[in-house]
Design goal:
Elements: H1 8-12, H2 18-21, H3 30-50, H4 52-77, H5 88-101, H6 113-130, H7 134-153, H8 161-166
Helix pairs in contact: 3-4, 3-5, 4-7, 5-6, 6-7
């Protein structure tokens, strides 16, 4: 598993496969199964909207974009812990894209999807601020912006007001 995770120094020393293999570096835990389920569930709904080939290209673009972002951030700042290992980051981005596409969908107890999206972003942001993990926070925020840009490039997020004005 460790050889699949993204370590920027390893990538700079020739282990370029880590740019695309980090989502496969999942430890065997119950939470991993839940993450895979949510990735499949919301990913398959996005796939219905995009089609299989475009969804595959979307995931590859997102994976590479987040990888390059981590490697670029690590170089000038000596950031060695980009936390790109496992499906969690990619699953979160896919779920947030789905939520942005369907903000008024209802989750458990009738909670609107957009509220869940706010919570899913706010919790890690607050945790990273509390832990003074500035570079990890920067990677998360830039990763969210990158995800929005990639999703928009693939024809998603057309109803998101501020993104519609940018295109």
């Amino acid at each position: 598993i460790d050889g699949l995770a993204l370590y920027p120094d390893d990538v700079r020393h020739g282990r370029v496969w880590q740019l695309v293999t980090w989502p496969l570096a999942n430890p065997v835990r119950p939470w991993t199964i839940i993450t895979i389920f949510f990735f499949w569930y919301f990913g398959s709904q996005l796939e219905d909207e995009l089609g299989r080939a475009r969804m595959a290209r979307f995931l590859v673009a997102l994976t590479l974009g987040l990888s390059v972002l981590a490697v670029v951030l690590s170089a000038p700042f000596g950031w060695t812990d980009p936390e790109l290992a496992g499906l969690g980051t990619l699953e979160l981005m896919v779920l947030l894209v789905w939520i942005a596409e369907h903000p008024h969908a209802r989750f458990f107890f009738g909670i609107p999807a957009w509220v869940l999206g706010v919570v899913l972003v706010a919790l890690p942001v607050l945790g990273l601020i509390a832990d003074r993990e500035g570079l990890t926070l920067l990677h998360l925020l830039l990763g969210l912006a990158l995800t929005a840009a990639v999703a928009r490039a693939f024809g998603l997020l057309g109803e998101v007001a501020f993104l519609s004005k940018l295109s």
